[in-house]
Specification:
The protein has 476 residues and is of the alpha/beta class. The chain has helices spanning 17-25, 52-57, 78-92, 97-105, 111-126, 130-147, 151-160, 176-185, 199-202, 217-226, 255-262, 284-297, 317-323, 349-360, 372-378, 409-414, 423-435, 441-452, 459-473, and strands at 9-13, 36-41, 62-65, 164-167, 190-193, 211-214, 235-237, 270-274, 305-309, 329-332, 365-367, 383-386, 418-420.
Length: 476
């Protein structure tokens, strides 16, 4: 089905691999054939064409490289201001995640860095009132324009002349703020899709856009509460295309084929372990190695394999260094291609099908406060979370406290996943998952409905309809 829209130009900011997943492989672009689409991608070099993979991936759309804004001059206190804004934002909105992450990332601070953090928190406390907070908010954008030259980006957007700019992430990176500020100066309306269920609370204060697309009603209410200048009619609930693949048969391989693609023998049984990034779990490979050994010592679990799906934004080699001699651990990388130093690559449909299929045929999904819990619940697989904060025989350099973060606590409270607090509970929950896989079925379904919104395989279509309608109103 093609969304009917008036002819117009749509520029899409795609700085992260999840943009390819959500908007290209989901079919989103196919629903917008009546719009002239320009994709802005990192390091896109048209002189490398013909590249058959990219030609097939972006057939019928225009592609240009994202521009990193050049530095004009450095301002002392610029980054300190952003940290104060983040502290004030979290305090004024009573976001508990901030304290959890701050404690974690400051655990190895030097004395000068700790003093700096005290200063940040002091001024963050003072900056909570709306007049002060939003004044600082505006000041940061002014200083950003002084520090970075956004003229090349304005020139690029002028040449494209889009009716609308669609930003597919909402996190502070080298591109997002520069393109949004450039678009605002040019009078180009901006649509933003909230990328993940944790972004509103685990990230700093976001930019203000003209139109928002969110996962669910709760996310909409939260956004309106955090940003009082945004009106309800500026926010539309569409769901997220990242879960559309779980409802499409072509993305769920047969069991035998899945085992073959994972490198497992015929008729193998396995648990899928969803790994976290190094920044949150430096010692996770050691934990997984211990888990494998515990399974080997258990009469029921010793014949099960442990398939580790590495996190897309991680150093995959760190896992092999720690578990190289364990013959019962199999690795399944997030992508077949190796990302560059920024995490950018071009994921394939096979990459997405491997995730969906490896979950669908697993005995359970094990992880530490990861989004993959939602993927597993959608596919009706038991979910086990490891919370070894008080388990003495476990690595300490792991952020177990993330289960209490604002975005993740509702998952725990839903009962859609089970937490193991020690090795005995861990073994028992794994055995229960084998023997009673549907025990938490209703709770998992409620968790999915609450956090993901409607998961029917049609979120990309709803997203396209919303973008198309907004673009039609603002076409040049």
């Amino acid at each position: 089905m093609v969304i009917k829209a008036d002819q117009g130009k749509l520029a899409i900011l795609m700085p992260m691999v999840w943009s390819i997943r959500n908007l290209v492989h989901s079919g989103f672009l196919d629903y917008l054939k009546n719009l002239d689409i320009f994709l802005l991608l990192p390091n896109f070099d048209p002189t490398n064409e013909p590249n058959p993979v990219l030609s097939d991936l972006f057939r019928g759309v225009n592609c240009q490289s994202l521009i990193i804004p050049p530095v004009k001059s450095r301002f002392k206190g610029f980054r300190l201001l952003r940290e104060i804004i983040q502290s004030a934002f979290s305090r004024r909105n009573k976001i508990g995640s901030y304290a959890i992450y701050m404690k974690w990332f400051s655990r190895n601070y030097s004395a000068p860095m700790r003093l700096r953090q005290v200063i940040v928190e002091f001024f963050g406390f003072l900056a909570q009132p709306a007049p002060i907070f939003f004044s600082l908010y505006g000041l940061y954008d002014k200083l950003y324009r002084k520090e970075y030259d956004i003229f090349p980006i304005k020139k690029q957007l002028k040449e494209i002349n889009p009716a609308v700019l669609f930003t597919t992430v909402n996190v502070e990176d080298v591109y997002e703020r520069a393109y949004v500020l450039a678009a605002k100066e040019l009078g180009i309306p901006i649509i933003n899709a909230i990328l993940s269920f944790d972004n509103l609370t685990s990230k700093s204060a976001h930019l203000i856009y003209d139109y928002y697309l969110v996962w669910n009603r709760g996310m909409k209410d939260q956004l309106l509460h955090f940003y009082p200048q945004v009106r309800p009619e500026q926010v539309e609930v569409t769901g997220t295309p990242q879960f559309d693949f779980h409802r499409k048969p072509e993305f769920v391989w047969e069991r035998d084929f899945t085992l073959s693609r994972l490198g497992l023998p015929v008729n193998s049984k396995y648990f899928l372990y969803g790994a976290s990034p190094f920044s949150l779990t430096p010692k996770e490979p050691q934990l997984v190695k211990m888990l494998s050994e515990k399974m080997r010592q258990n009469e029921i679990l010793r014949d099960y394999w442990l398939v580790v799906r590495t996190h897309p934004k991680d150093d995959w080699e760190r896992w092999r260094k720690e578990t190289n001699n364990d013959q019962r651990i199999i690795f399944s990388n997030a992508w077949d291609s190796t990302p560059d130093e920024t995490g950018w690559t071009y994921p394939t449909t096979d990459d997405l099908a491997r995730l969906t299929s490896s979950l669908a045929h697993s005995s359970a999904c094990i992880n530490i406060a990861s989004t993959i819990s939602l993927d597993a619940a959608i596919l009706n697989r038991p979910v086990i979370g490891i919370d070894f904060e008080n388990e003495p025989n476990a690595p300490r350099e792991i952020l177990y406290e993330e289960y209490q973060a604002d975005h993740y606590r509702p998952l725990v409270e839903s009962g859609g996943l089970r937490l193991a607090h020690n090795w005995e509970e861990m073994m028992n929950l794994m055995i229960d998952a084998i023997q009673f896989p549907n025990r938490d079925l209703a709770a998992r379904q409620n968790m999915v409905q609450q956090e993901c919104g409607v998961v029917d395989g049609n979120s990309a279509r709803r997203l396209a309809a919303a973008v198309s309608g907004f673009a039609a109103k603002h076409r040049s």
